[in-house]
Amino acid sequence: MSDKIDNSSSHSNHLSGKKRKASDGNGSNGYKKRKISNEDEEESIITNTKDSIKMSGRYNYEEDDEDSNIKWKTLEHHGVRFPPFYTPHGIAPLHKGKPLILNPVQEEIATFWAQALGTDFTEKETVRNNFEEEFLAVLDKEMGVKSLNNIDFDPIVKHIEKTREERNNRPREEKKREREENAKLDAHFRYCIIDGEKERVNTVMVEPPGIFRGRGEHPHAGKLKSRILPENVTVNVGLDNMIPKCDVPGHAWKAVVNNPEATWLGQFKDEGREKAGTKYLFLAPDSKIKSKNDIMKYGKAKKLKENIEKIRADYMRRMVSKSMQEAQLGTATYLIDKLALRVGNEKSEDEADTVGCCSLRVEHITIEKDNKITLDFLGKDSMRFHQTIEVHPLAHKAIERFVKGKKPEEDLFHLINASRLNEYLKELMPQLSAKVFRTYNASITLQNELAKYEEKPRDDVEKKVKFYKNANREVAILCNHQKAVPKNFDEQLKRLEDKLKEKKKKLKELQTHKKNLAKDSSISKPKMPKTSNACDTAIKKAKKAMETEEYKVSEKIENKNIALSTSKINYMDPRISVTWCKNNEVPIEKVFEKTLRMKFAWAMSEDLEWKF
């Protein structure tokens, strides 16, 4: 059976959103393909049961079979939303001072570039070269354009700025009406019904066309992202559930499949971009399936805790093995455990040169005295890992052994690869991976840091939250969770410092006023306390305000390139935070924003005595 919808058939017959009877035949890749008939039956049950189907409640994960490959039995949804098609504006850029008349396709691409101009992104050589190659390829040869440098996009930039200003200056009622219309369109795709329960969908729209940015210093940054059409999208639905309607006239889904082993509702790929990866449309983080995955993930980390001493003894034993391969396995695992490194795969020339444990090269490591090493490489998302660390003497000796006689560009662990290392991890413990190590170390570090808190009578919630953030920061540093320093960081910091100066000035004025009152109680100043007692109250309040601003300044500086949220979302067992907050009377909303409270709803009822 073909996995494609017949585009030659009528749109209304094939894509009406009516319920169809699916074939029970098996397609390729081990999942069932949907057969579409021409029978017209009842409309989608999603639109008729919005209020009658309750949101998913607490799930009994403990009794669930975590090894089951089947994720659901029935799945029904409305497909995916597509961005509106491009509307030409008719503004021509200039080529050597003369208007360059473009067709709609060319104009849209030129507008992508004009929208990005003025940012650091368009100043990167790789980006400019890639975009130039892509843009010149769609221009007609008769236009005579040889270089991006000869094109002035300023007319389009001015048009964009004018349009933006006009949109911003629209009446409030018009903006509100637009938001409501967009929300209504999103709501149509926002929920699905899985095994009879209503669940939120995380992403409702495919990626719009534009310029590819990538993560870090990606070699393909600047290339074009094609417009995703229904013909690029495969939707996943229940075998006997209705097929979602494709609401783009004249188009059809690439395929409709029944794959209950997958948790994605749809998948698509930019066919026009070489090496583009497949993108997926998933359920929201607070869905039952996602919550189950989280609980199982932290369960594996907790299991690692129970076996950690045995595992560490094994890799330390291998570290001193006469076999170079065994020694490399042991040492690599030691680094993954100690430094929360990723395993690391080999990279092709058209991928960013990011590094993990197995892909470390001699040039990335400097052997120091006193059992220390310095690592300097680009990790995930091209974030720099640059640390000097004291390692176990045996690890230090082993690394010296591995680098001996090698050139800088040679692999540190030349006898092992990611596959062999992953095999070894599974030998140590079923389902063990570098991610499990990272989750364990992040969680145990947070628990140990929070255990250092000793409550004092004067500690208010704010001080407790500061302590929590500092503990969170230690985990982020361990996992090398970094973020790019904002372009306007200095401006942001100056605003905070100016506020701090104001608070200090206010405090000093109050203290001086109190001294003057002590000398002459009849002194009166506008907006100043009238009595000594009132001064004390105002001074206490001013001190607290000043301390708050001082903390904001120090926090801004310390965390300018540290991403606290990554470890909180992905690696720290939420029950550690929940139980600490309960035991120390800190409202959970002070450490978990709304999205995290929804994502980790399963952790909120944990007992006070729970320990990771």
From TrEMBL:
The organism's place on the tree of life at top rank: Eukaryota
GO biological process: chromosome segregation; DNA replication; DNA topological change
PANTHER family: DNA TOPOISOMERASE 1, DNA TOPOISOMERASE I
GO cellular component: chromosome; nucleolus
UniProt lineage: Eukaryota, Sar, Alveolata, Ciliophora, Intramacronucleata
Enzyme Commission no: 5.6.2.1
Protein name: DNA topoisomerase I
CDD domains xrefs: Topo_IB_C (cd00659)
